[in-house]
Amino acid sequence: METGMSIHDEGTPELIYHVVQLKHWNEAQESGTQYFPPTYDSDGFIHATHDGKLLIAVLNHFYADIDDDFLCLEIRSSKLASPIKMEAPAPVGDKAAHQEDENNNNNGAEVKKFPHIYGPIEPLSTCVVRKLPVERSADGKFVCVNGL
């Protein structure tokens, strides 16, 4: 690879966020293996965002029915060994893509792009700079990511 070349798309933000089911993250961390979310094989990549304000709506859209604890990983993209492509929102497993606003329905406006990670996250690498707890209400709704 030439000096200065990146495996990430141009415009990839330095900090991105990915929310993990705590049990899956802990398993990867404790065993020293690579982390892949449960939907990686069907989706072909790991979903992420660069806008922490979008996380609660996205979590409630895709994961409200999963009875588990979640953790938000703040990832330094320049330290991530897997390629990142900035792409349009995509389904997660069998759930349709979350449409955060009218711009994602296009209407002539450019569709927002999100970081998609094409490969694993290494739990023991330096790419994860913070692990932020995700809070849920008694009825299972996601309410906040502590620290964002």
Treating each run of at least 4 consecutive H or I residues as one helix, how many helices?
A: 3
Strands, count: 7
pLDDT below 50 for ≥5 consecutive residues: which ranges?
101-108
CATH class value:
Alpha Beta
State the end-to-end distance: 35 Å
Structural class of the helix and strand makeup? alpha+beta
Query: What is the C-alpha radius of gyration, as a whole number of Å?
Result: 15 Å
Task: Please name the CATH architecture.
Answer: Alpha-Beta Barrel
Query: What composes the largest sheet?
Result: 4 strands, antiparallel
Order of helices and strands: EHHEHEEEEE
Percent in strands: 25-35%
Q: Do you know the CATH topology? A: ADP-ribosylation fold
State the share of residues found in helices, binned by percent: 10-25%
Query: Which word captures the global form?
Result: globular
Q: Your description of this structure?
A:
The chain has 3 helices and 7 strands, in the order βααβαβββββ. It has a 4-stranded antiparallel sheet with strand order 1-3-6-7. It has a 3-stranded antiparallel sheet with strand order 2-5-4, with no helix packed on it. The chain is globular and about 45 Å long. The protein has a single domain (15-94, 107-145), classed as ADP-ribosylation fold (Alpha-Beta Barrel). A hairpin with a 5-residue loop joins β6 and β7 (142-145). It has 148 residues and is an alpha+beta fold.
Main attributes of the structure:
single chain; 148 residues; alpha+beta; ADP-ribosylation fold; four-stranded antiparallel beta sheet; three-stranded antiparallel beta sheet; 3 helices; 7 strands; globular
